[in-house]
Amino acid sequence: RLSSGLRINSAADDASGMAIADSLRSQASTLGQAISNGNDALGILQTADKAMDEQLKILDTIKTKATQAAQDGQSLKTRTMLQADINRLMEELDNIANTTSFNGKQLLSGNFINQEFQIGASSNQTVKATIGATQSSKIGLTRFETGGRISESGEVQFTLKNYNGIDDFKFQKVVISTSVGTGLGALAEEINKSADKTGVRATFT
């Protein structure tokens, strides 16, 4: 004891005291690792946050260019140039989504789901984190409006191209006539049946 300066050097000095000391040492080691785990989780979220902040800046630029292209003072040539800029920005957006990672784990590709971090000494002291996909095909909303005049009766069927960025959606055939229940209202009803899936709603006047 004199040489070490410790009251307990072995179980022979104080068995119960030695057990308590070992338990405290184990808890301290576990808590140290839990703190390290918490710092890793914080680092992951900060990395994702900075990457998404860059994506937001890109989206703001895309919005500005789209607004610029929408006004009638633009020629076909300038609109084509603006679209080329937007395409390049979309590629940059997707590149950030597909390459942002932490210790080899991709963060913004849609694979970071229910990731668990041990932040305490007990088994139930954990936190979970999920980060959704941020590719251009997974975020935002594409909207268009169209109108036309139908002057003849007959069978009508619409196909919505790339409604989810990949697949086509084909509506059921509808017969347009002057009879009650088979006019344009029936066509609008058929389109609106799938509105939750396609994002397309129809009205008629």
Order of helices and strands: HHEEEEEEEEHH
How is the main sheet built?
A: 2 strands, antiparallel
Tell me the strand order in the biggest sheet: 1-2
- Helical residues, percent: 40-55%
Q: What's the overall average pLDDT, rounded? A: 78
Query: Can you say what the CATH homologous superfamily of the domain at 36-129 is?
Result: f41 fragment of flagellin, N-terminal domain
Rg calc: 31 Å
CATH architecture of the domain at 36-129: Up-down Bundle
Structural class: mainly alpha
> Tally of extended strands?
8
- CATH fold descriptor of the domain at 36-129: f41 fragment of flagellin, N-terminal domain
Name of the CATH first level of the domain at 36-129: Mainly Alpha
Distance between the termini: 97 Å
- Outline the low-pLDDT stretches: none
Helical stretch count?
A: 4
Shape: elongated
Give the percentage of residues in beta strands: 5-15%
Gist of the model:
The chain contains 4 helices and 8 strands. The chain has 205 residues and is mainly alpha-helical.
Task: Describe this structure as you would to a colleague.
The structure is a single chain. This protein is mainly α and 205 residues long. Among the domains are: 36-129, f41 fragment of flagellin, N-terminal domain (Up-down Bundle); 154-198, no CATH class. It is 46% helix and 11% strand. The chain contains four helices and eight strands; from the N terminus they run H-H-E-E-E-E-E-E-E-E-H-H. The strands form four sheets. A two-stranded antiparallel sheet has the order 1-2. Helix 1 (15-70) packs antiparallel against helix 2. The longest helix is centred in the first third of the chain and has 56 residues, at 15-70. The radius of gyration is 31 Å and the shape is elongated. The N and C termini lie far apart (97 Å). The model has no long low-confidence stretch (mean pLDDT 78).
